[in-house]
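In this supplementary section we document a worked example of the pipeline. Step one takes a protein sequence of length 119 as its only input; no multiple sequence alignment statistics are reported here. Step two produces a three-dimensional model, which step three serialises into structure tokens for compact storage. The input and output of this example are shown verbatim.
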Amino acid sequence: EVQLVESGGGMVQPGGSLTLSCGASGFTFSAFDMSWVRQPPFRGPEWVSAISATGRTYIADSVKGRFTISRDNANNTLTLQMNNLSREDTARYYCARVTKWEAGQTDFWGQGTQVIVSS
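The serialised model returned by step three reads:
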């Protein structure tokens, strides 16, 4: 059974930092492209960042220069380092397994972790 479990969310002031982690199990993590998807309040999901099985990365323009994605295949962990957070980054963040990179297509998602940026 594929499982993705996110952690690391919380409330932070504008300009602050958070590190999100996703623990994966039930599949060969190293063989799959992975992504972070966020859903702000009252808006649709947005693909924030992705990392391929070979280490190629994608970062959305809205977070470029502030967010960094990485993976640890030895520990089946996906990480999103988020710096200089703004109120616009408030959202629920999901770890998702990618099935088609070019199409932004995913199959399994975790339950998400909430990030609130507020003073």
